[in-house]
Write a structure and sequence with these properties.
A hairpin with a 5-residue loop joins strand 5 and strand 6 (125-135). This protein is 39% helix and 33% strand. By secondary structure, the chain is of the alpha+beta class. It is globular and about 45 Å long. Strands 1, 2, 3, 4, 5, 6 and 7 form a 7-stranded mixed beta sheet that branches.
Amino acid sequence: MQRPAEKETQMPGIDPQDLARDYIAQWNIEDAAERRAAVERLWAEDGTHVLHPPEQIRTIAAGLGFDSPTLRAQGHDAIETRVTRSHEDFVVKQGYAFRSRGDAVRLDGVVRFGWDAVSAETGEVLGGGTEFVTLDDDGRIRADYMFPGV
């Protein structure tokens, strides 16, 4: 049986700043084929993106009897759809760009980093959030926990 420290040495050398930069970049990519390639490069085939929804969605869900609403996308196709729709809404329609805060840290197979949503025109910070990602043995994202507004 492997101990966690032994498992860590088998994972490729992942620089958390590079991972954060590449993760954030996927949300800004204009070309659909390049965006799909980024998803396949970054994510495990069965990777899962879990979103802590904004307060408005949580309030609506609570009113419908859901005590713990989360939004999930699993697998390359679903994650590509999630990234594409976010790109279309925030980048194309609202004129945002996403950028890393440069604060990524790695602890074994977990990486935490913050990001900002900025006006592509002025650079003004309009929002942001925090990601916690777990990596598989190949250094690809197994699970991503997104907390907007944090």
